Amino acid sequence: MSEGVDDAALVERFPYLRIDHDSKHFYRGWLDERLLFNRCDACERFHHPPKPVCPSCWCASLTPTEVSGRGVIHLAMFLHQGPPAPGVDYTTAPHPVVAVELEEQEGLRFTSTVIDCPRDAIRIGLPVELGWVDRFGAPFPVFRPLEGS
Amino acid sequence: MARNPIRDEIAIVGLGSTGFHRDSGGRSAKALACDASIRAIRDAGFEPGDIDGIVGAAEPGGPNPNEMSAALGLPQVTHFSSPMPVAVFALVDAMNAIFSGSCSTVLLYFAYTRLPWNSRSAAEDPFRRHHTLGVMPSPESVNAAAAYAAWASRYIHEYDARREDFGRVALNARAGAARNPLAVMKAPLSMEGYLQARMIREPLCLLDMDIPVDGADAFVLTRTECAREKTRNPVVVHAATTGLVGTNDEDQLPSLRRHGQHVVVESLRAKSDLWLEDMDIFFPYDGFSIITLGWIENFGWCPPGGAGRFLEEHWDPQAGCVMIDGRIPLNPHGGSLSEGATRGSGHIREAVMQLRGDAGERQVAGARNALIGCGGFFFNSQGAILRRL
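YS: structure for the whole thing
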């Protein structure tokens, strides 16, 4: 949980990420297994990755707002080699990395991997939903095929 | 026509290159940059005291302009800067510095060194150990290099592209490199060989990615009116531009039909008296093969999604490379895929060599105009048109 986690502790929970004052709310949300995207208080548009002002209207009043995590795969690649990470073994199978366009807003995307899905089914256009796995003892957001799709 | 007061006003009067190698044999990036710079200054017929501007692309592991000025003993400079890669950022900065009067003559250098994160042998070099990426990135990222594999997947999805479409970019580059003494990858490459290459970030394989090298390119730029004192027909920059769309975070890019390359093409076209039909050589950047397909389409040589077919239709089986309409080669020096990952300086250098008539067996007869599309889709799209007066 993010309650009581100060900035120093937040950075320690995610040693593999570059967190700054613009993205700290986003990553603090991970500790609660919530995907929080900046939403503009004035024009109500989401943006990602987190920016200090709304790129649509320059309003600096932004609220980290939970998104559903449901969407459709927009980009899909398979890493045959890459940076080391727990649970990622490139020698067993290529590691899928997808950018998912979220249902909240056209063009709003989030990038992660896909779990619980056969390789051949991981394709552009596949509906997916958010799930959480453990990475270095902290929650990490991933996608899995949308149930019933 | 857009305002372009700098049109034809800046000339490239000196060239120097170390050539490109998998291993420089114990030479530092600064040593390579000095080698290329001294060649370029001598090629221009200048002395150190003639250089009052120094611009060096901020390549990882490369020397800063102040370090280069110290190494070369330049008495004093009034303009020095270190623009981000890729090459046309630095070219534009050098041009603007001269045109505005910040300085009169610029040494423009690009030094490349294999780094521990892109070369296994570099990782074993104790003198390169201090180069680190800091926080190790997660695999689940489509940032930087990975972005091109991710968007290549989209390209294949939207246009039903085949691997052969990408492969022709690699084959064309290899054929050029075989004719270029500066190039690193000269072994012949067949489509079969391309298709069998190791996948790295599927759908892109090893041969879709530029090849890390040690080496350096350098240029000397000055005002065209000064260049005319030495040669009647200097090579000049007719137009140059960079281009960016607002939403340029890699995974948030609007689409394959709206990104930095489109801004570059619109800007360049508005600034230039010359366009596709006037060109003798075309340099579409090839840090990744998908970038080349993008430049071909976005300059308007063919419709979106048509680059694969275009390369096939304009393939010269005799030469084993592309010849648009039987006369316009693409990256005849071998590009970043086979000459070496010069991040665009190789493309500019080859354009100047061709326009001077110094390109040896690669020479395009009577070449007057060259079109360069440099950089990729996100935050380093740029372009230039070079011509011989």
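YS: worth flagging: Helices of chain A lie at 7-13, 24-31.
IM: good catch. Also The two ends of chain A are 31 Å apart (CA to CA).
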